[in-house]
Amino acid sequence: MNMKSPLTLLFTICTFLLYSSAELDGSLTYIWPLPSKSSSGNDTLSVDPELSLVVGGKGGDSSIIKDGFDRYKKIIFKHSGRSYPVNKRSVFDIGILKIAVLSDNEELQLGADESYLLLVEKRNGQSIIGEAYIEANTVYGALRGLETFSQLCAFDYETKTVKIYKAPWYIVDKPRFAYRGLLLDTSRHYLPINVIKQIIESMSYAKLNVLHWHIIDEQSFPLEVPSYPNLWKGSYTKWERYTVEDAYDIVNFAKMRGINVMAEVDIPGHAESWGAGYPDLWPSPSCREPLDVAKNFTFDVISGILTDLRKIFPFGLFHLGGDEVNTVTLNGSISDRLLELYIACEAMTHEMTGVPNDQLKSNTASPGHSLLIVVFYYMKKDLIKDGHIMVSMPANGNCQSSRLLDHNMTTKDAYQYFVLRAQEIAISKGWTPVNWEETFNTFASNLNPRTIVHNWLGGGVCAKAVAKGFRCIFSNQGFWYLDHLDVPWDGVYKAEPLEGINDTSMQELVIGGEVCMWAETADTSRMWSKREAISSGNITLTALPRLHYFRCLLNRRGVQAAPVTNDYARQPPTGPASCYEQ
Amino acid sequence: MNMKSPLTLLFTICTFLLYSSAELDGSLTYIWPLPSKSSSGNDTLSVDPELSLVVGGKGGDSSIIKDGFDRYKKIIFKHSGRSYPVNKRSVFDIGILKIAVLSDNEELQLGADESYLLLVEKRNGQSIIGEAYIEANTVYGALRGLETFSQLCAFDYETKTVKIYKAPWYIVDKPRFAYRGLLLDTSRHYLPINVIKQIIESMSYAKLNVLHWHIIDEQSFPLEVPSYPNLWKGSYTKWERYTVEDAYDIVNFAKMRGINVMAEVDIPGHAESWGAGYPDLWPSPSCREPLDVAKNFTFDVISGILTDLRKIFPFGLFHLGGDEVNTVTLNGSISDRLLELYIACEAMTHEMTGVPNDQLKSNTASPGHSLLIVVFYYMKKDLIKDGHIMVSMPANGNCQSSRLLDHNMTTKDAYQYFVLRAQEIAISKGWTPVNWEETFNTFASNLNPRTIVHNWLGGGVCAKAVAKGFRCIFSNQGFWYLDHLDVPWDGVYKAEPLEGINDTSMQELVIGGEVCMWAETADTSRMWSKREAISSGNITLTALPRLHYFRCLLNRRGVQAAPVTNDYARQPPTGPASCYEQ
Q1: Are residues A57 and A108 in the same domain?
Q2: Is position A9 within any domain?
Q3: Which end of chain B, N or C, is less surrounded by CB atoms within 10 Å?
Q4: Which has the closest alpha carbon to B115: B89, B86, B136, B90?
């Protein structure tokens, strides 16, 4: 039979995947993310289920170490095996894990030392170190070492004990990038505290270190702000809210896992929900976005929010948003003619769907988005990439413009004025401002030089930003927007924050990267490992089996990570199989 | 604009859902599943974060009560509020929860008494009961009462305390059906212990009481069987296994939540994986299913497995499978001509996809299934319903048939012989056998009268089974197969186990129902509540808001339950909104 439809091809591939089962080596030991330096041997060591902790160094007594050890002990000894009487414990090769933390400074900030040394070897009367040993400069480095140690431990179903294969292990490790983030958006959908904690816990498995909490947006304002107690009236319901105490709880939970929390207040273009509590923040009842730039009250509220948040969020970076502000200025090569076509498409789609124009373009989850893509596709194919519109927000009328004329401002003036004034407020509270790339794209030369530019629209932005001396975070939506479900795993894996940046001093200005939107962390730990260690060779042979293995590890720990190689992300598996093959 | 494409309609609906936001009453109190009898008032009571437990009755001292109380206390007081000094505790209306358990019998079996009484009222010097009081005959009834109590408690973001609205509450409750199950399949995909525990925990939120553990199937054999230690060589990998201790752990974890675990060993047609460890169980190396009926060794292995499992699983019911055995006998009205067409379709689909014939029909997740549906659709539309083929397995050659001739058996004889002999083994171990409906459909008059018939193929089977005196479990795949993602929530909700059964004594033979395959428990609690309380009126007005509310409750507790009204189940939401509206 000779059918060549895409359907047949798909089936052929699926069938191949279903039946290409290979026997896996039981002593296989994969570590994710890949450590900086590691060597292994051929010993197999058994680990005592009553593994005990011995601490040393100025920072060893920290509750962060003690709690971390208890957490990982539960993970390592998850399976119930036989129980052994205490006097039989000498049968195990590893009975003690020693952790030495050289510094007692527990401040968690960008650039905190996360390096560690991990040694695991057979007990030896002569050896001073012996058994299992983690050494780190800070408690956070020790936590990273604990994660790696837990990944060396495997439950052996034959003997029903935990084994470490391929010992002795000598691992010296540190991250490639200081900033390794995951964005959560709690405005478009409220995420319960428990869910946020589960995600933070899973971030620690991938050695991510920044939770970028996009708390507030135009759809809802879930956070309590004591200075302006009506603001959280903008929450979806009375139950979809975070108290100040909840926020402290999140920050503390994250700190115990070595994870910073960077809060975002996305202004002025994503703040419609603020007006539910304080309608004066809207330019007028019918014009609700951006925030009213012409009133001092607007900046009083921002200052009040930032004062309250400063007490909760000790992380030195604060995200001020600044994306997708509706001005008449366009970014890049879009022509007037094309703009007209785009506006016509958008209007038509809006009329058909009722979805607001700004959501149509940016939000792939909105019902009108696909239709807009289809309509626009026939107009200008080359501006659509992987199902996303690769242009900045077109002008379709900023409803403030007539009011702004009274103040001798254009909408673009107002945008710049707003962002710079908000930056000043953030800096006055001791924060380093982070802004989405449109601020850089639109008025780079006026931005505060401390600004960290947060890329999202596409490639090449960090190269431009660091060339002008700004620091940069890489989140190219073509690869690292987790709500873009059509990006294959290798696209996510290969995306490179330093692409096109060759000068070492400029490379250092790229502080890291961040995956945005959804809680799938498995594909993001590329930012820990060295570029040369992972970018050479055929990654289907080198990285993919290790990624499968890490997916299964996440599943075992209760994280519902989906199959890696699905054509469409987070879909259920296409048929029965081992998690090590899907 | 006048577009009437399905796409436009879809968008219109989505848009309606997005913008039909209604302000929800903060004192709203929905209970899921609906209690048997309840009355409420207009008081609002505050609950002390240091709520203490006072127990009474012969069974009050049980660790099941103590642990249950501790679990629910964490759920109820999840949000961090203000802390109150001990001497200020009198400000709270509810400081004590009294639980009286009349019996100290903790045996958990089908029909265990799960009834309870729950009273919550303002403290009153005259009242003997006072505050919050649960009374139950068994610890399991008390657990159900604790669940209901936890659903009355709501965190009030204004005062940052837990409140009970609409007090006083008087609830007298008991389940409509004794058997309220959820099937998990750990053969097609291994489920880690942690994930199974999460699902068991979430089952308790919906007052489900049987985890039907479909442990083994043709794809993999993950369970350790000490009598035949090579059996779990049929696991996908060395890591995708359950030790005997793991199984005990699951059973105990479930018991602490009042949930029975019914194990299934699906024979003879779903057991190919057994031969990985003992190839003699296969009729021949090229004919691996059904299990070899002609060897005593086959029944020795079954007996060994059942002996080992009997020690682990105290529940009186044991599932012997018996579905989809390939014989030449067909069930129902399918004609010879239609059968020929079906076989031709199946052969063609098999050739195109490489998927085995038996998977094509039954497994909607198999890549060939949709194609088979399409092909078959043009042959005989009326046998396709909601995307599923509603006929029993057609004959396409049982590979044992020529061997069976040597024993003067037809494939149908062999099927019956196998099932009945396995039933005898199970009964000899003190178990009540449960079998999938094909055994009843094929040789009802020879089935052991203790057999519980487990419906799955479609409607009307329980009516036939109880008419012949058998007990029955309802799992009509048209509604209660959770892997059939195209069934809307109201279809799931309205499906009725007693449909077509009017005689009361026959109704009593329907012990309950079960949802199969995936861990979405939110829609299944219909089996607790009385039929008349939920089947009258417009359920979109009565049940849907309560179901939304329960979905949000599950989310708050960390269960990743998806939006209720999606066209396709468990898809992400179509746009930003409150979880109370999606």
Answers
A1: yes
A2: no
A3: N
A4: B136
Contacts for A145 with CB less than 8 Å, ≥ 6 apart:
A99, A116, A117, A118, A134, A135, A136, A171, A173
**Residue at B487: amino acid letter:** V
Query: Which residue, among A17, A75, A84, A238, would best test binding to B if mutated, counting the most B CBs under 10 Å from its CB?
Result: A238
The answer on A213 and A118 residing in a single domain is no
The pLDDT tens digits for A334-368 are: 444 445 455 655 665 565 556 666 665 554 444 44
Residue of A nearest to B483 (CA): A572
Q: How many whole angstroms separate alpha carbon A145 and alpha carbon B540?
A: 53
- Answer yes or no: do A189 and B573 touch at CB < 8 A: yes
> Nearest CB to A556: which of B14, B192, B249?
B192
Query: In the A/B pair of chains, how many CB contacts fall below 8 A?
Result: 204
Task: Tell me which chain B residue has its CA closest to the CA of residue A218.
Answer: B576
Contact flag A245-B354 (C-beta cutoff 8 Å): no
In the stretch 354-383 of chain A, residues with CB closer than 8 A to chain B read 354-355, 359, 363, 365-368, 371
The three-point CA angle A143-A148-A154 to 5° equals 130
Q: Which of B218, B272, B289, B324 is catalytic?
A: B324
Collect all residues of chain A within an 8 Å Cβ-Cβ radius of residue B21.
236
B317: closest CA among B472, B529, B143, B208?
Answer: B472
Measure in Å the smallest separation between the Cα of A109 and chain B Cα atoms. Answer: 25
User: What does the pLDDT average to over B447-461?
Assistant: 95
Rounded CA-CA distance A213/A196 in Å is 10
Supply angle C-alpha B220, B225, B227, rounded to 5: 135
Phi and psi at residue A11, to the nearest 5°: -65, -40
CA distances (Å), A315 to each of A321, B6, B235, B461, in order?
16, 49, 47, 63
Helix (H, G, I), strand (E, B) or coil at B237: coil
A248: closest CA of chain B, how far (Å): 9
The answer to whether residue A82 neighbours chain B at the CB level (below 8 Å) is yes
Q: What is the DSSP code (8-state) at residue B247? A: H
Same domain membership, residue A185 and residue A160:
no
Residue B572: give the domain boundaries.
Answer: 539-581
pLDDT: which is higher, B84 or B289: B289
| pLDDT (tens digit per residue) in B528-558 | 767 666 666 787 887 787 777 777 776 776 6
Instruction: Indicate the number of domains in chain B.
Output: 3
A396 in any annotated domain: no
Interface predicted TM-score (ipTM) of this complex, two decimals: 0.79
**Is B26 within a domain?**
no
Same structural domain, B325 and B197: yes
Residue of A nearest to B364 (CA): A575
Structure tokens at A568: 């469409």
Q: Is residue B394 included in any domain, yes or no?
A: no
Percent of chain A, pLDDT > 70?
Answer: 72
Q: Which of residues A139, A173, A207 is at a domain's end?
A: A173
Contact A154 B555 (CB under 8 A): no
- B168 preceded by a cis bond (ω within 30 of 0): yes
CATH number of the domain residue A122 falls in = 3.30.379.10
Q: What is the DSSP letter of A335?
A: -
- The answer to whether A245 is a known catalytic residue is no
Q: Are residues A297 and A264 in the same domain?
A: yes
The pLDDT of residue A367 = 40
CB A320 within 8 A of CB A114: no
A326 to chain B, any CB pair closer than 8 A? The answer is: no
Active-site residue identified among A324, A346, A438, A581? A324
Pairing of strands B260-265, B210-216: parallel
Tokens representing A253? 């939970």
